[in-house]
Design brief:
Elements (H helix, E strand, L loop, with lengths): L3 H6 L7 E4 L3 E5 L7 E7 L14 H17 L7 E4 L3 H4 L8 E5 L9
Antiparallel strand pairs: 1-2, 2-3, 3-5, 4-5
């Protein structure tokens, strides 16, 4: 089964990368839903947040730190921003490789659609 985000993590699929580390990559979303829209993914394939297990806790923590670093780097820290993880069909997930959306540069609303 081929996974587009595994391809990006491996450098085989082009992406507009904004940050990367040993176990994560952050790149701009192809169809941005806000002025800033970056995806933070683990390099390792995990289908979604429902598939994480306790030993993934450190990795998930590093992804959250990376997401906050991206937001800071994009100048969003002061004004605020939103992190989103969609899970499964009802959650609106379309790519089955865990990713954190970093959204900012406009006023977010609640509840989300
Ligand atoms: P989700 O609906 O939460 O699974 O989010 C998947 C996101 O991936 C969507 O916002 C898509 O626009 C984005 N996306 C899909 N393919 C690519 C790609 N090749 N490069 C960047 N973003 C992508």
């Amino acid at each position: 089964m081929s996974c587009i985000f595994c391809g990006i993590a491996a450098g085989e699929v082009p992406s507009d990368t904004v940050a990367e580390g040993e176990d994560f990559v952050a790149f701009r979303d192809l169809q941005p839903q806000a002025a800033t829209h970056v995806l933070v993914i683990p390099r390792r394939h995990i289908s979604g947040i429902a598939d994480i297990i306790p030993k993934d806790g450190d990795l998930i923590g590093r992804l959250m730190v990376a997401a906050a670093d991206v937001a800071r780097g994009e100048g969003l820290a002061e004004g605020g921003y939103r992190l989103v993880v969609n899970q499964g069909e009802a959650g609106g997930q379309t790519v089955e490789h865990l990713h954190i959306h970093v959204l900012g540069g406009r006023q977010m609303r609640w509840p989300p659609g």
